[in-house]
């Protein structure tokens, strides 16, 4: 099976702009979770989508949003970009939603905000 | 999310030695504890996981132990090789994966 894919792999934006990142899960996986990875804060949970519904949300401002499509592909959007949004954004897919589901990560999108 | 503390933050061992990374968690309801390995510039990859119905799990040179009473779990790598050099993350599964801050392991030939 093909693994989790993310596009684009790299992005450079300026403050105030918005950005949309895409994640395609492993075939048959219906849950997609998004994480932000930074050197200072490590891996932090953004949100999880399952069957086109947001199931859980981390402690991030409303500028961070997401959605999931009927084919389980997911997008996340960050509006009004700030310098501190520079990070590696990782998505992970799992078959279902639940506390013991194994999550498989994509390669990430590296976002640089100037 | 709940806190996961991971120690040490850096670890340097000689090839062939063992490496141990320890994590503690606070959510007593957690039942699933995965470990991920992240090489520079690459995605986190699941290397082993353990569920609370067992105390230890092994996969070749890698083992994980879990002590639910004490709320800690550990990763053990035996006969380390240079290709084991990476950042290792522990996690506990609440409503999302809560990660430790990572351990940078360096295996020197």
Describe it:
- Chain A has strands at residues 5-7, 10-13, 19-24, 31-38, 42-50, 53-57, 64-68, 74-78, 87-94, 104-105, 109-113.
- Chain A is mostly beta strands and 114 residues long.
- In chain A, the strands form 2 sheets. In chain A, strands 2, 4, 5, 6, 9, 10 and 11 form a 7-stranded mixed β-sheet that branches. In chain A, strands 1-3-8-7 form a 4-stranded antiparallel β-sheet, with no helix packed on it.
- Chain A is globular.
- Chain B is built from no helices and 11 strands.
- Chain B has 109 residues and is mainly β.
- Helix content of chain B is 0%, strand content 58%.
- Chain B is globular, with a radius of gyration of 13 Å.
- Chains A and B meet through strand 5 and strand 10 of A and strand 4, strand 5 and strand 10 of B.
Properties at a glance:
heterodimer; A: 114 residues; mainly beta; seven-stranded mixed sheet; four-stranded antiparallel sheet; 0% helix; globular; B: 109 residues; six-stranded mixed sheet; five-stranded antiparallel sheet; 11 strands
Could you give the topology of this structure?
The complex is a heterodimer of chains A (114) and B (109).
Chain A: E1 5-7, E2 10-13, E3 19-24, E4 31-38, E5 42-50, E6 53-57, E7 64-68, E8 74-78, E9 87-94, E10 104-105, E11 109-113
Parallel strand pairs in A: 2-11
Antiparallel strand pairs in A: 1-3, 3-8, 4-5, 4-9, 5-6, 7-8, 9-10, 9-11
Chain B: E1 4-7, E2 10-14, E3 19-25, E4 32-38, E5 45-51, E6 56-59, E7 62-67, E8 72-77, E9 86-93, E10 97-99, E11 103-108
Parallel strand pairs in B: 2-11
Antiparallel strand pairs in B: 1-3, 3-8, 4-5, 4-9, 6-7, 7-8, 9-10, 9-11
């Amino acid at each position: 099976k093909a693994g989790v894919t993310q596009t684009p792999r790299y992005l450079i934006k300026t403050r105030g702009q918005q950005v949309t990142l895409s994640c395609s899960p492993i075939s048959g996986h219906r849950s997609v979770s998004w994480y932000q990875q930074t050197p200072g804060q490590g891996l932090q949970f953004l949100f999880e989508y399952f069957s086109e519904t947001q199931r859980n949300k981390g402690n991030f401002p409303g500028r961070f949003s997401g959605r999931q499509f009927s084919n389980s592909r997911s997008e996340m959007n960050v509006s009004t970009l700030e310098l501190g949004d520079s990070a590696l954004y990782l998505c992970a897919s799992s078959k279902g939603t639940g506390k013991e589901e194994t999550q498989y990560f994509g390669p990430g999108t590296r976002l640089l905000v100037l | 999310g709940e806190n996961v503390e991971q120690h040490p933050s850096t670890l340097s061992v000689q090839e062939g030695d063992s490496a141990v990374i320890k994590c503690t968690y606070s959510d007593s309801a957690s039942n699933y504890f995965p470990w991920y390995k992240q090489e520079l510039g690459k995605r986190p990859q699941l290397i082993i996981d353990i569920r609370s119905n067992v105390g230890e799990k092994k996969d070749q040179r890698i083992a994980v132990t879990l002590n639910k009473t004490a709320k800690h779990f550990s990763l053990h790598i035996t006969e380390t090789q240079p290709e084991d050099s990476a950042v290792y993350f522990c996690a506990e599964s609440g409503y999302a994966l809560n990660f430790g801050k990572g351990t940078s392991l360096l295996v020197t030939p």
